[in-house]
Write a structure and sequence with these properties.
The complex is a heterodimer. Chain A is an alpha/beta fold. Chain A is built from 12 helices and 5 strands. In chain A, helix 10 (about 185-200) packs parallel to helix 11 (about 215-230). The longest helix of chain A has about 35 residues, at about 1-35. In chain B, about 45% of the residues lie in helices and about 15% in strands. The chains are: A alpha/beta, B alpha/beta. At the A-B interface, helix 3 and helix 6 of A face helix 3 and helix 13 of B. The structure holds NADP nicotinamide-adenine-dinucleotide phosphate. NADP nicotinamide-adenine-dinucleotide phosphate binds near residues 143, 218, 236 and 237 of chain B.
Chain lengths: ~250, ~280
């Protein structure tokens, strides 16, 4: 009898866990549908906008997509590699008018952490030809059930989105990334940012690189130096969350 | 219908019919039949529209009925899609052989690169030059290019200037820079989505409506005439045989110079097909 009760309890717990996972997976896609840019063909707004912003982390926390009278096309996401930010820029820059601005937000800490990350959101948001060209196949099952295959990523996204929805990120906060300087990483990041800047310049967009304030001054100084070498690039340091709004919507 | 000469001496009809989202075979048959009986001989298709075969079937059917019209009288253009450029790494011969086999056409009058896929634009174009020299395609061209892409082709060693450039052009997006570049290089420009897909903003535009009343034509006819007067070849899509007549019956009036300018002033760089959303890295 006792064994039966335990079995029933275990079964009930398992059912609850499965239900929780299923609902989380559903919630993930519901949020993502809202965060992801709309179909350009059905939605005729957001053409010839003033600028675009790509980036992840803090910028995603503090900005709401497409809630700003269509001036800046917000194309940011939770946890995305800089490489995929570039891919997002390549996919969405045509929403911006000729001579408009491309804001590229980058945090050295995130650059190191998410270097080779591919999230299900990447495959949803970025044009499939980018993956086709790189011969990277989207793994269907992994993208369909992120809660199982990327639990850390999925739950952190759900928490962040929920907090964001509740207005928890509205308050102005100081931002600082304290990640140790590594010459190779900084060089690699600088080259990528400079490549992104050249991409914009070739398409008559004005690149503005937004760097998260870093405890080690060398990081941003070197990044700045590399970016500026590629031409008319503006580099700004983000010290507070309110800086985003000030720079983008002033 | 009258035609315009391409730089290689071939002729292209002054108005062509498109087939994007022409999903019903019965519509295709009715439209092609109506077109051929009205002397409208230009047709545009693409692998991505999935209309190459239905268009070819409709053409073969119409030709067997109208024995006075020959294949040589028609002008059929298709395209090379981005996935082909990527899969073949620029070598797109097998896709052209395949479309000819599927459509039972012995040649295409025009082969266009659909989107300038950055990594393979030059290689694809060089391969098309070979197919052109072999006669598999009678003319070659490009779609959706900006002047910087044309420069890339030249830098990449292209020896044949594209005969045709097909871009989205309508009163809300007049592409002055591209049109004058092409004029200078003797490239005929085809205007796709020439009616801006008849979105409400264009259908209800006051200027266009006033001018349409002035000339006693429909807004669609006014826009199509605007294109032909600029020397462009509009590619207009309709699933209705009745509209085939309406859209091609545009040569019995002339828009005055001032009115041409007024229509040009509607330009606001508005595009239906946002380039980077269709072709990342554009
Ligand atoms: N190279 C490229 O990248 C590219 C891209 C897009 C299109 N194209 C080519 O260009 C062709 C035309 O472009 P499109 O189809 O995008 O747009 P379009 O020709 O500007 O507009 C087509 C729309 O207008 C309507 N229409 C046609 N004639 C009309 C009239 N007289 N009065 C009122 N409405 C009318 C059609 O409805 P009904 O069908 O109901 O008549 C259809 O909904 C395509 O079919 C395709 O072949 C090429």
């Amino acid at each position: 009898m006792r064994g039966l009760i335990i079995a029933v309890i275990i079964l009930a717990v398992l059912i609850l866990i499965a239900l929780f996972l299923w609902l989380s997976n559903k919630a993930y896609f519901k949020f993502l549908r809202h965060d992801k840019p709309t179909s350009y063909f059905k939605d005729l707004r957001y053409r010839n906008v003033e600028g675009i912003i790509v980036g992840n982390g803090a910028v995603f926390k503090y900005l709401y997509p497409r809630r700003n009278q269509q001036k800046i096309y917000i194309c940011t996401t939770h946890r995305r590699s800089l490489d995929m930010d570039f891919a997002a820029l390549k996919t969405y820059f045509s929403h911006v008018k000729d001579g408009g601005t491309a804001y590229i937000y980058a945090d050295y800490g995130d650059f190191k952490k998410y270097k080779d990350l591919r999230t299900p959101a990447d495959f949803e948001i970025i044009h499939p030809h980018i993956f086709l060209e790189r011969q990277e196949k989207p793994r269907k099952l992994r993208n369909k059930y992120p809660v199982i295959f990327f639990p850390g990523y999925t739950f952190s996204y759900l928490f962040m989105r929920t907090f964001k929805m509740m207005g928890m990120y509205k308050k102005d906060r100081a931002l600082l990334s304290n990640v140790a300087y590594n010459e190779k990483d900084v060089k690699e990041m600088g080259e990528m940012l400079s490549e992104m800047a050249s991409f914009c310049l070739e398409r008559t967009l004005k690149p503005v690189i937004l760097l998260m304030d870093n405890g080690d001054m060398r990081v941003n100084n070197e990044l700045k130096e590399t970016c500026v070498r590629s031409g008319e690039v503006e580099v700004k340091i983000i010290k507070r969350s309110s800086d985003f709004k000030e720079i983008l919507f002033k | 219908m009258e035609s315009i000469s391409l730089s290689n001496g071939k002729n292209i009809p002054k108005v062509m019919l498109g087939s994007f989202q022409m999903n019903k075979e019965s519509d295709m048959e009715a439209v092609v039949e109506e077109a051929i009986s009205k002397g409208v001989y230009g047709f545009d298709t693409s692998p991505s529209y999935k209309t190459e075969e239905s268009l070819a079937r409709a053409v073969h059917k119409a030709l067997s009925k109208h024995t006075d019209v020959k294949r040589e009288d028609l002008f059929i253009g298709s395209k090379i899609d981005s996935w082909m450029m990527m899969e073949g790494k620029g070598d797109i011969r097998k896709y052209v052989e395949d479309v000819l086999e599927r459509t039972k056409l012995s040649y295409l009058d025009l082969l266009l690169i659909h989107w300038p896929q950055p990594e393979y634009l030059v290689q694809t174009y060089l391969c098309m030059e070979k197919l052109y020299e072999e006669g598999m395609v009678k003319s070659i061209g490009v779609c959706n290019l900006k002047v910087r892409h044309f420069n890339k082709l030249i830098e990449g060693g292209a020896t044949i200037t594209p005969h045709v450039a097909q871009n989205e052009i309508h009163p809300f997006n007049t592409e002055e820079e591209l049109v004058s570049y092409c004029k200078e290089k003797n490239i005929v420009v085809q205007a796709y989505s020439p009616l801006c897909r008849m979105i409400p903003e264009i259908k209800n535009d006051a200027t266009l409506n006033i001018l349409a009343i002035k000339y006693g034509v429909s807004v669609a006819q006014l826009m199509l005439r605007f294109h032909t007067q600029r020397g462009l070849v509009p590619i207009v899509k309709t699933s209705s045989p009745k509209r085939v007549s309406e859209n091609t019956d545009i040569f019995n009036f002339t828009i005055e110079e001032d009115d041409m300018k007024t229509i040009s002033l509607l330009d606001r760089h508005f595009k239906m097909f946002l380039e980077s959303r269709c072709c990342p890295g554009y």
